[in-house]
Automatic annotation (TrEMBL), chains A, B:
It holds the Pfam family HxlR. Residues 8-106 form the HTH hxlR-type domain. The keyword Transcription regulation applies. This is Winged helix-turn-helix transcriptional regulator. Keywords: DNA-binding, Transcription, Transcription regulation. It comes from the Bacteria. The lineage of its organism: Bacteria, Bacillati, Bacillota, Bacilli, Bacillales.
DNA sequence: CGGTATCCGCGACGATACTG
DNA sequence: CAGTATCGTCGCGGATACCG
């Protein structure tokens, strides 16, 4: 693989998980299916607008699945797709490196 | 490790390599030591300002080493630190996932 | 050669109000 | 409950000029 491909592929990954809130969202969805309000409650700092936007982008990238129940009151569930679950390895490696890095910076 | 730590660690990694030009810079430095002008030539799209800024940040994070030769004309060499080389695993995993992701999107 | 300094546009992100 | 719509802010990154 050429340097260009290597770099472009890294950037493609960053586009998918690089959003400000996406790692956090993906982390919460590792635990399983969650409703919109559940995610909102677990991430009080995020606005509804940003949560919606980031969820939509993750959905478009095939990472998460959105299941809307047509009922009143509305109910929407978000979960990782099988494809989205393949991101776990990436997140794990990043988490491990980041954890060492943080330790290093505070030594 | 708690969810908070996991998420914070991923974000710590993103802070280090998430900059717009950093994956590209790190990719070029995998090949070995490079001079400022060399990097500039290999990345014609980046401005000198951004190249300088991103190199400084990578240096502050301990990822790269900056060696300035006190002479006229100036000569500055950048290289990965031993610590910076540990990022390779992270970049590799991201590259592999991103490459599959790009294929998937164009199927 | 390898940078700074300065100015500025634009898009990401936020706050708030409203709705099916 | 799960969103839109609208408006406002902020800082990243680009353009250009200058410097040791």
């Amino acid at each position: 693989m050429g340097d260009q491909d290597f770099k472009n592929s890294v950037e493609a990954t960053l586009k998918v998980i690089g959003g400000k809130w996406k790692p956090m969202i993906l982390c919460h969805l590792q635990e399983g299916t969650k409703r919109f309000g559940e995610l909102k409650r677990e991430m009080p700092e995020i606005t509804e607008k940003m949560l919606t936007e980031q969820l939509r982008e993750l959905e478009q990238d095939g990472i998460i699945h959105r299941k809307a129940y047509i009922q009143v009151p509305p109910k929407v569930e978000y979960s990782l797709t099988e494809y989205g679950k393949t991101l776990r390895e990436v997140l794990d490696v990043m988490s491990r490196w980041g954890s060492k890095h943080r330790m290093r910076r505070t030594e």
